[in-house]
């Protein structure tokens, strides 16, 4: 490698380290899941922690039904798709999942991707070009922003969850589309979906909703939070790596949109299709969320218990009613120090820093799941009390 490339990388890494923003991976021990099964125990370097940083909100990644589905589908389909969906990678498992997703959401057609990141970039890059204008919430996911930047469309951002701001941009720019998330990944708050949907309809603008954190947990949310479906969004992106506990994603929309993506989306055409196993797992997970609310009820109960416990302990949370419970600290070093202290107390939470969140809003991102026990949550709240000093 050339000296200048090495120097560039070294310099950037040093800068990030000095700013407290260097990202490193944390290896999880293999025994993590199976010591007490199913549970949210996380073993790192032989030390056990309670995991409050997982997006596996319903615990489906460990559900017996999912493990059975894995074995069955492997025997039925093999473990790999073997090629792009346009060659021979699109099969029965994929079709069943697309149909099930359409049945649940009311969309005409669906298209599967190996990740939410690639679904979003594919959608934005393929649908928009130079000359188009797209309006998006200030806090939409990096994959949406990257896709829009790649598309060369003009991107205008409205203030986070601010309908008036969206209305101003709508009348000023007459955009082709408006993009938001249902539940925001770092704040846990919910977009004014009904209002934004109406605004789009009145202006003949396509409404795109990234439902990564909402899909699958609907029964756990307050009744005022309506599920995203075809009556709200023209295009809906759902992902399988969060509440569905496995991997992959789908774009849902009109038959015309899906046909257009099949013939034009480079991420779809030039990439090996989602494994049939993952399609079967996602199908099993969708059916589980449709046929039983037990896990969602437990999740809702745990969220309420956590919020009530924090109130009693005078720990001030945001108003989020979702599994994502941010605790804003502000300063990066302070956030990291508190997260380290929590680890030493056996509690694992994400420390989220800029640029993932705005400067000055570094935070602990606590996620509550259906697998946590009240004892786990008591440990979390007691540890927070100690760590926050
Ligand atoms: C996680 C996430 C994605 C990406 O999905 P992956 O399947 O993890 O690649 C996209 N959008 C939002 C809002 C997310 O939180």
Structure description:
The chain is globular. The model has no long low-confidence stretch (mean pLDDT 95). The protein has helices at 3-18, 64-77, 85-89, 92-105, 116-127, 142-151, 163-173, 193-202, 255-264, 266-269, 276-291, 294-312, 332-344, 374-388, and strands at 41-44, 47-51, 109-113, 133-137, 154-158, 177-181, 206-210, 235-239, 249-253, 324-330, 347-348, 350-352, 362-367. Helix 7 packs parallel to helix 8 and helix 13 (332-344) crosses helix 14. The chain has a seven-stranded mixed beta sheet, sandwiched between helices. Strands 1-2-11 form a three-stranded mixed beta sheet. The protein has a three-stranded antiparallel beta sheet with strand order 10-13-12, with helices on one face. The protein is an alpha/beta fold. Strand 1 and strand 2 (47-51) form a beta hairpin. It has 14 helices and 13 strands. It folds into two domains: 23-52 and 293-388, Aspartate Aminotransferase, domain 1; 64-291, Aspartate Aminotransferase, domain 2 (3-Layer(aba) Sandwich). Bound molecules: pyridoxal-5'-phosphate.
* Poorly predicted ranges: none
Total helical segments: 14
Rg, please? Answer: 21 Å
Total separate domains: 2
Q: What is the CATH superfamily classification of the largest domain?
A: Type I PLP-dependent aspartate aminotransferase-like (Major domain)
**What's the multimeric state?**
single chain
- The class by helix and strand makeup works out as alpha/beta
**What gap, in angstroms, lies between the N and C termini?**
48 Å
The number of E-state strands comes to 13
Q: Roughly what is the average pLDDT, rounded to an integer? A: 95
Query: What is the CATH third-level topology name of the largest domain?
Result: Aspartate Aminotransferase, domain 2
Please list the strands of the largest sheet in the order they lie side by side.
3-9-8-7-6-4-5
Main sheet: strands, sense, barrel: 7 strands, mixed
Strand-and-helix sequence, N→C? HEEHHHEHEHEHEHEEEHHHHEHEEEH
Bound molecules: pyridoxal-5'-phosphate
- Indicate the proportion of strand residues: 15-25%
Gross geometry: globular
């Amino acid at each position: 490698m050339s000296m200048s490339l090495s120097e560039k990388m070294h310099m950037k890494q040093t800068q990030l380290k000095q700013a407290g923003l260097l990202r490193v991976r944390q290896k999880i021990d293999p025994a993590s899941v199976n010591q007490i099964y199913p549970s949210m125990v996380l073993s790192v370097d032989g030390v056990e922690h309670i995991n409050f940083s997982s997006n596996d909100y319903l615990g489906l990644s460990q559900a017996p039904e999912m493990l059975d589905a894995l074995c069955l589908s492997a025997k039925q389909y093999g473990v790999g798709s073997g090629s792009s969906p346009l060659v021979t990678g699109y099969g029965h498992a994929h079709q069943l999942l697309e149909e099930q997703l359409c049945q649940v959401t009311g969309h005409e057609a669906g298209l599967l991707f190996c990740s939410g990141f690639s679904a979003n970039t594919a959608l934005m890059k393929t649908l928009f070009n130079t000359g188009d204008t797209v309006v998006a919430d200030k806090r939409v996911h990096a994959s949406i922003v990257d896709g829009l930047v790649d598309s060369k469309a003009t991107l205008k951002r409205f203030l986070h969850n601010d309908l008036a701001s969206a209305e101003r941009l709508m009348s000023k720019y007459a955009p082709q589309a408006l993009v938001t998330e249902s539940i925001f990944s770092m704040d846990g708050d919910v977009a004014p979906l009904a209002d934004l949907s109406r605004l789009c309809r009145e202006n003949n603008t396509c409404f795109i909703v990234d439902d990564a954190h909402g899909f699958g947990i609907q029964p756990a949310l307050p009744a005022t939070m309506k599920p995203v479906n075809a009556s709200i969004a023209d295009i809906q992106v759902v992902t399988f790596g969060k509440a569905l506990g496995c991997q992959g994603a789908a774009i849902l929309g009109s038959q015309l949109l899906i046909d257009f993506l099949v013939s034009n989306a480079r991420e779809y055409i030039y990439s090996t299709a989602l494994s049939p196993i993952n399609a079967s797992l996602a199908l099993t997970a969708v059916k589980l969320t449709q046929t039983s609310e037990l896990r969602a009820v437990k999740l809702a109960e745990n969220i309420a218990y956590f919020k009530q416990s924090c109130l009693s302990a005078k720990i001030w949370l945001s108003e989020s009613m979702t599994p994502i419970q941010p605790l804003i600290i502000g300063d990066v070093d302070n956030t990291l120090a508190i997260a380290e202290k929590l680890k030493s107390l056996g509690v694992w939470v994400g420390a989220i820093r800029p640029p993932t969140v705005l400067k000055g809003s570094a935070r602990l991102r606590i996620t509550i799941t259906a697998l946590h026990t009240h004892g786990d949550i008591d440990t979390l709240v007691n540890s927070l009390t100690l760590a926050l000093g």
